[in-house]
Amino acid sequence: MLRSLKGLVCRSLRLDRGCALHTAARDGLSSVSSQDVPAERPRAVFHTSESDPAKHTEQHEARLYNIPLEEVKAVFPHGLPHRFQQQIQTFNEARVMVRKPALELLAYLRGSNFAHPAVRYVIYGERGTGKTMTLCHVLHYCSRQGWLVLHIPDAHLWVKNCKELLQSSYKKDRLDQPLQASAWLKNFKTSNERFLQEIKTQKKYMWGKQESTEEGRPLGEVVEQGLARVRSATDAVGVVLREIKQQSHRGSFRLLVAVDGVNALWGRTTLRKEDKSPVSPEELTLVHNLRKMLRNDWSGGAIVTTLSQTGSLFKPSSAYTPQELLGKEGFDALDPFVPISVPNYSPREFESCYGYYLERKWLQHEKAHTEDGKAELRFLSGSNPRQLDRLAGPL
Amino acid sequence: MVVDQDWSSVYPTAAAFKPASVPLPVRMGYPVKRGVPPPKEGNLELMKIPNFLHLTPPAIKKHCAALKDFCTEWPSALDSDEKCEQHFPIEIETVDYVSSGISIRNPKARVVTLRVKLSDLNLDDHAKKKLIKLVGERYCRETDVLTITTDRCPLRRQNYDYSMHLLTVLYHESWKTEKWESEKSEEDMEEYIWENSHSQKNALDTLLQIKASENVSNVTKEELLASEVVKKYRNSVIALKNNGETESNMSQYKESVKKLLNIQA
Q1: Considering only CB atoms, which chain A residues are within 8 Å of B214?
Q2: Would you call A232 helix, strand, or coil by DSSP?
Q3: What are φ and ψ of residue A227, in 5° steps?
Q4: What is the tens place of the pLDDT at every residue in A272-327?
Q5: Which residues form the Small ribosomal subunit protein mS35 mitochondrial conserved domain (chain B) (predicted)?
Q6: Angle B156-175/B125-135 helices, nearest 10 degrees?
Q7: Burial level of A257, CB count in 10 A (0-12/13-18/19+)?
Q8: What is the DSSP secondary structure assignment for residue A211, as one 8-state letter?
Q9: B131 touches chain A (CB under 8 A)
Q10: What is the ipTM of this complex?
């Protein structure tokens, strides 16, 4: 009640950028710890104790919910924005804000028919509005529901700054990236231990001359093989993707393919071959296999992706719409998809984020506690989550 | 000088400045220190500059009255702009230059600009697209006007003939279809065509898979293409590609995809 009145008071200074989609890439959302913190204002209404995303509804909107730290380690070994991870360390808790785009996505996922081919969702928005955090919220929901989560934290990492590029032994004209593949396999293992024992391979795979994985062995062995022999890590990733895709329609598990920065797969790379000719994304095995996963010729799950300009290559910094970032090829490959836009903070969400920072004593400046200070923060950040986070840092 | 004297007889043609004939107290020149500009008597500055004392408004009125005998009446049927445009769709623009000097020639006077609206030309779809590609920058999409400017010949009449020749050639060439035009690819298309595009293929594949999973057989492609959801999807994709991405376009696309894939919230 009090919060909505506060929202009315500050409405005159609202400076939302109308239709911009913002993703809260760093917006950590604060959450208040469950202990009673003696605060000047009454106990915040902007925290919710409901920590299961499955039960989040509109009444939880603009509130922050807590994820226990052990779950954070298990579910998000990679994938949370860097600043949010720092925030978790500082505040010793992980609080995520429940926002409309995430609620919308969760509603779609709940109502989706898993016999139909997988639906693709593309989360888009301007810089720093909460796209990656929305993705993480959905990821948390799916892992709580027991889905197999295939999370690629940032597809841009696979198309730039690769130290080693090996020629693929499987297909002559493709290139392997052993370091990236093994890093991803390690994190994949942490988040999906139990599935790796349950899913069995369906055919025999040869790794080089002597080693092979027989049919019917658990997928964990393939992952071990990839981690042990780094040269074959990329092929191991390809095998894992292939097996999971083929078996998802049986219904024994649900598959969520979550890719952050999906526009990297159809852009340009900054990698060069030994003869200094540029590498196009199709020539990278990892990208090729991931593109096959993103096609909707399988059923029994969903594909949730995010567009990101921040790590992208050769794209102007003002680009945020799907066509601009994906390009013609990417759009044609992902079409038909459901676009989900993530805007800047609404007044309510801004209030709750500001209230969280205050309650955790993150805003130390004495003027920041006043109404004027709040209005100034709102104006300076433009209700953009990332800007607010950066502004509140030095205060 | 008498006040009601006829000025056009004092200066009937271009002549130098005669201080005795011009009754105005004109001063011109740089003044000496703490002085005034020199007077008009014996003033070289006034004599060397060109003057238009022979072209005062009454003089020009007399010229027009004399020329009227050589003119014809404006046709009474052409009393509005629309009628002029309808009967004479081609507009020719030329510029004449007047200067006070020894020679009446000016090289800029040879430029001829021809303007015509493409809607007044008899062009079908292929011919119009080919013509627009041929002329490039000379066509303005908003006003549908083709502008051809010619100045490569030394005389105005030659430039006019050349511009008419250009228009004729463009018209006839755009009606012809060459053999290599069949190789026109997607990148060359001016606007997005949904038929036979990736979008159509993807949508049809997805719908067929959905129907197969529901065990509904005997659904043909034509039926799918004719259904309402696919038509709406097609329109939203065309709007998105041709008009760019706006809020309304994106939300329309989102709604159409949700209906197509049967997603309920």
Answers
A1: 115
A2: helix
A3: -75, -35
A4: 888 888 888 888 888 888 888 888 888 888 899 999 888 888 888 888 888 888 88
A5: 102-177
A6: 140
A7: buried
A8: E
A9: no
A10: 0.78
